[in-house]
Specification:
Layout (H helix, E strand, L loop, with lengths): L1 E8 L11 E11 L2 E7 L2 E7 L5 E2 L1 E6 L1 H8 L7 E9 L5 E7 L7 E6 L3 H6 L6 E4 L8 H4 L12
Antiparallel strand pairs: 1-5, 1-9, 1-10, 2-3, 2-7, 3-4, 4-6, 7-8, 8-9
């Protein structure tokens, strides 16, 4: 079970480059249900996600590079490219800041995962977080892969 809240970014955190980061490319084979393939650095995954907003079932399976490249040809929509920074929060949680590249730039989103829904509801975001878009389907990556022409510059 994945329990997460998602926010726009009001301001980039200080010393962003000092945090660990991953380069991610992901594409969607299907958006209902969500079936995603992802390359994260040198690792490859196939992911299934159920419907939902705050809480969703999520299953990850490892892929080989060859399988990823084969499935990539079957992708529906654009391939999403982003740099993900893992930023520790004072609460002991980790913020995952995604800075989108290519067709989805300059969009930036930050997600925080929780162990329980109660913790997610009680979470007070840091000052650099912007609008809470947890319950907006438009900010699911699967939806973003279908809508590359949206102007996100006004959402920052």
């Amino acid at each position: 079970m994945e329990i997460e809240r998602k926010f726009l970014v009001k301001a980039m955190p200080e010393q962003l480059c000092s945090y660990p980061a991953h380069q991610i490319a992901q594409a969607y084979l299907c958006t209902d249900p969500v079936v995603r393939i992802r390359k994260q650095d040198d690792s490859y995954f196939l992911t299934y996600k159920s419907k939902g907003f705050l809480s969703r079932e999520e299953y990850n399976l490892p892929l080989t590079e060859e399988a990823y490249l084969h499935l990539l040809k079957k992708a529906d929509g654009i391939v999403i490219s982003k740099r993900r920074y893992r930023i520790p929060l004072p609460s002991g949680l980790t913020a995952e800041l995604d800075i989108f590249e290519g067709e989805l730039a300059p969009l930036s989103l930050v997600e925080v995962e929780f162990g329980a829904e109660e913790a997610a509801h009680a979470f007070i975001p840091p000052e650099w977080f912007g609008e809470d878009v947890t319950y907006s389907a438009a900010y699911h990556n699967s939806a973003l892969s279908q809508k590359a022409q949206i102007d996100f510059s006004s959402n920052q």
